[in-house]
Fold:
Amino acid sequence: MADTTASNHGASRVEKMKSYLKTQKGLIFAGEIVISLIILICYAASIFRGYTALAIIEMVLAIIFFYIFMMELDKQFQVVNWVWSDFFRAIAGTVLYIITSLICVTTGYGDGALIAGGVFGLLAGLLFAYDSYNIFLQIKSTRQHTAASTDDRV
Structure:
């Protein structure tokens, strides 16, 4: 008799991924992963391959956070504040992609792959900025505004 629990567990992961990809955050993560892969390919085809590290790091971080939020591990491991961690990841991605892309676009004369990577990097910077803005709104809406105590006792 075959053990079907492993295949059912794998099927539940696929179902979780499909349902998470239908959410706004899931689409943003998928976009970040895909555009980072495109940038990685462009930078790898370039003469200056040193820029590939940024694309690799941002893609791996997006995959890790995608998995954490998809499997709802953020609710199980509450030692880390996952929303703030994701916010800092998105802010760092925004700043680094925009700076690196501007450098690539302005200094990449004669290297079409580097310029293409820079243009996609600027688009990635906009996507990461949009993600940062959405996370900021989420943090702002869940923040509890507690009033100061008016107790006269000291």
Remarks:
- The two ends are 71 Å apart (CA to CA).
- The chain has five helices and no strands.
- The chain has a mean pLDDT of 87.
- Residues 112-142 form the longest helix (31 residues).
